[in-house]
Amino acid sequence: MNTHLTTALDLAARGVPVLPLRAGKLPVPNCAVCRDNACGGRPNMKTPGPCTCPRPCHAWAAATVNPAVIGSPDWATAWRQAQAVAFCPGGAGVTVVDLDHADAVAWARATLPATRTVPTTRGEHWIYRGTMPSSNGVRDDVDIKSAMSYARWLGPGSGATAPLPDMVRALTDRKPAALARPVAVPVPAGGGECRHRTPAYLERGIAMAEERITGARSAVHHTVYRTFLAVLAAHGRCGCLTDTHVDRLFAAAQSKGESARHCSDAWANATTALGM
Q1: Is the pTM of this model over 0.90?
Q2: Where are the beta strands (DSSP E) in the chain?
C-alpha cells in the first residue's frame, strides 16, 4: 500500500483528520467534481469552495477521518502523486505553532512553555493541546495553525503535549499594523519626467512582483517581504504607486495564504528598512 495512504489511515484511526498534499504543499479536494479546480475554487485550494458539492471538500475542509473517503477512487490518484500527508490541527484538538526559521525557534524556546516538538525542513512545529483561530504571520516566520487550517504531518515528534497557553492565544490578538503607503518624493529639479510614471514600465514591475509572490513554493513570508522591499526600492520614492498597485500586491500575497495583517506588517517593515 502507498506509504502516505498507510500513514493517513493510521492517523484517521486515531481521530486525526487527514488529506493528501500534492507538489507545493497544496491540498487535494476530496471529490472528483472539484478536481483540478473544475468547480472554480481558488488555485491554491487553501480555502473551501466555491462549489456545489454536498459536503465541504476543499483544503482543511477536505480533511477526514472516514476511511471510506480516504481510500476512495476520488483520492486514489492523489495518494499515488502525494508529496506528503496533511492534517487539520483544530479537528484533532490541537494547535500547531509553525516556526519557520532558526530565529523563530530560538524565540519560542525563550518565550513559550515547553511542549511536543516536531522538526520541519527549516524549523519546528510546537504542538499544544487545545484549539484557537488560525493566523499567519503573527511574528516573523511564525504561523498559528489550528481551526480551519492544515499542516503537514511530519511525525509524532517528541516531548509531552502541553495545554495551549494564553501567550500563544494572545499572538493573534495583536492589532494589525497601520497600512504604510508610499511617500511621494518630488522628482529632483532637472531630472525630467519620472520613467516610473510610464504606464508600461510600472505595470511590468507590478506584474513581475505578483508573479514572484504567487510562484513561491516555500518561504512565502520571506518572498512577500523581499518582493515588497524590491517594489518600494524601485517605485516607492517618486509617488508613482497607488492604492490599486498596493492592493494587487496584497491580493497576490493573500492568495498564498498570507493574512492581511502580515501583508501590512511586511509592507510597513519594508518602508522602515528603506527609511521611507
Answers
A1: no
A2: 18-22, 26-27, 84-87, 94-99, 116-119, 124-129, 135-139, 142-145, 151-152, 162-163
